[in-house]
């Protein structure tokens, strides 16, 4: 018999009208790193919420045993008491408080109700060194980067004497270097005897770190794989997740590259917060009709900043440089000017910057080009419905109707709404910032298909992505950005991950 | 929440009493959107409750007329307020703006003998300028509306006292008093309604025209949607809603026709509700307001001129405050230093009772007006049964809290249902 620290048996959780989990089994061995894979909506987060007591005992069916004892958690405090700590994708830190205060949030080091600051900071320092974060514990959270914040979350879990650490998409917002550091840390924690459950979309990461894998699909546990004994490949995991073998993760595409669509010349952007700092320096970049161009770069390289400064100067101050649309100089000083010049920018953070989540699909689709549906200031809402419904059909947006609220759609379908919104502006140049972030494999394929179709219709497309395989699989040409400068340009035929990574890290100290 | 239905606008004449339940066209089945129609059901229940408690006095012709006239200025303010709340802002200054615009109108007409049409025009422009002043600080300077309008509340009250020289000014010309307090003439004389007695023919004809207009507009909307193969209410459901709305409108109109005909403020109010419902549902400008309140960042990145929209909804609030200021002063026949005290709170309460969301992005003109009427009926009904004012206040506070609690509860339920 294996020594299981956690056993979940026959977990079934129903929401009104939906069976989110159906007879799910999960066994985690003591001291291993166990990955849970599955498409969005497969039930991964729901399962973790059942485990951590977010959904209390009684609201689901099935048995949980931790360390051989049955568990009936009434809330998160209960599960944390037993040493089960969950770190959510959206970090739960108070940005205005110090690192030490955050570590002991809800767990304050106090004597008779008064906080002992010396003890708090001293113990925080100790925890920080355990997670390899060299920061003063009185530093404010908002002053450190996302990668370091993630480490603070782990230190916080250690402060709670964690025995089973659950991480939901821990590296989604991290660059490769920070991700690598985090994975190393998890290996270190494993060696100290802390069991980890990690939810991740990044299969290369799962392959690199996991000792075993459980795959969920449509609320059911499909299979559990042991990395040591089973022959596990990324394709094997993917076929388990989607229930079919994906021939190829990228749809085949024969580019029809035409004339120049957008040229950016000597583009320099300064930081709006730090005086004099150049975020983008002297960038020259050309997009052609029918071409999908990638923009690679580490976090902080200035990719989003470059895109947003071009899109109506929505980022940065003291912007210099020139824009040419089909050879003619253009101005795009405001979002409206950018849109009227046929430039569109689909943001990397669709929930915060892309969609009105409390509105329905059709009103989101029309938001950036409402005047197209209006005469003398009055909107024809029947036309609006028709237009949105056409996009729903052509892009396969899964929703009961275009009157469905976007906040209730899955990430992939939300992304399709964002794309529809920008396509409806009649843009010739589409800048897509992380178009598949947080989207499951099946939906990614659909998004790639849409991008290919857009290119085939003569649009010029710039894809910004942190996933190199995505850029390699999708793009005809790739620029690498490092510290605000273009450090390399590679054609698809000569592109390798290593080569792009070299460019991406060029000039970094 | 996000209804596109122009039907709200077409239903607007019914806003002076219970509009028909819900919005047609969203659902194919019988599913009732509780969040959207809850307010109308609540209003109907409150009317029924007070009708029973007052032995029918609530729905007597004179009392209906009183409710409309007494609450008209709050209802007008609530129309402007809902736009501001949808955009995610607030206006605490409207009470003081009502006072100062009433004072300006009084000084112009009484002290300087300016002809009333010109005086009203100047007053409306003054209201617009006040709105522009506040809109500038909020939209272009970036100060939170809460602060700017809190300052405005003090500033414009001070200005009122200065303009009035700390005393009431009146009386107003007859035309202004008629607008605030008066009724349409019996142009076509009376007709007998059997046991109900005589009633004004003009009012009744107007009511019939309004009902017919509503029915035709609704029918055409429905037909257009069917032409686009959208889901619409089934025919019996559609007819039921129309008949209900028509019955309510005609009941109110007949009661009014039996008393002193239609109050002019009702005509004004109906026009405003209709116009603003159209703007919020159908106009590009109205859509921008929802987009800004729903997600400011997304609106900015969609090329919406956020600053200009915010600026203009405050200008609009200033103009509507001026209209309310004139009506209130005209009704009292005097512009006084304490006019409009705490009107802002009534208008804000009306908007929230009427289904606006605290975070912005949600709300309807008809909802806000219904919210205002709910408070009006509670006020009126409780005073008819002789409740002391502290109890009226208590009930109004409880209703406001209950309405927002209900809104939060339904939202949470919806969120957990959708995982």
Concise description?
The complex is a heterodimer of chains A (509) and B (419). Chain A is of the alpha/beta class and 509 residues long.
Structural account:
Chain B: One of its GO terms (cellular component) is plasma membrane. Chain B: Pfam families: BPD_transp_2 (PF02653). Chain B: The chain crosses the membrane at residues 39-59, 71-90, 102-130, 137-156, 196-217, 238-256, 262-279, 309-329. Chain B: Residues 1-27 are annotated as: Disordered. The complex is a heterodimer of chains A (509) and B (419). Chain A has 509 residues and is α/β, with parallel strands linked by helices. Chain A has three domains: 4-242, Rossmann fold (3-Layer(aba) Sandwich), CATH 3.40.50.300; 248-342 and 428-509, Rossmann fold; 355-426, no CATH class. Helix content of chain A is 32%, strand content 27%. Chain A is built from 17 helices and 24 strands. A six-stranded mixed beta sheet of chain A has the order 6-9-10-3-11-12, with helices on both faces. A six-stranded mixed beta sheet of chain A has the order 18-21-22-15-23-24, sandwiched between helices. Chain A is globular. Chain B is an all-alpha fold. Chain B folds into two domains: 1-7 and 184-262, no CATH class; 33-182 and 265-417, Orthogonal Bundle (ABC transporter involved in vitamin B12 uptake, BtuC), CATH 1.10.3470. Chain B has a two-stranded antiparallel sheet. In chain B, α3 (61-86) packs across α11 (284-294) and α4 (94-111) crosses α13. Chain B is globular. Residues 1-32 of chain B have low confidence and may be disordered. Classes of the chains: A alpha/beta (509), B mainly alpha (419). At the A-B interface, α10, α11, α12, β20 and α13 of A face α8, α11 and α12 of B.
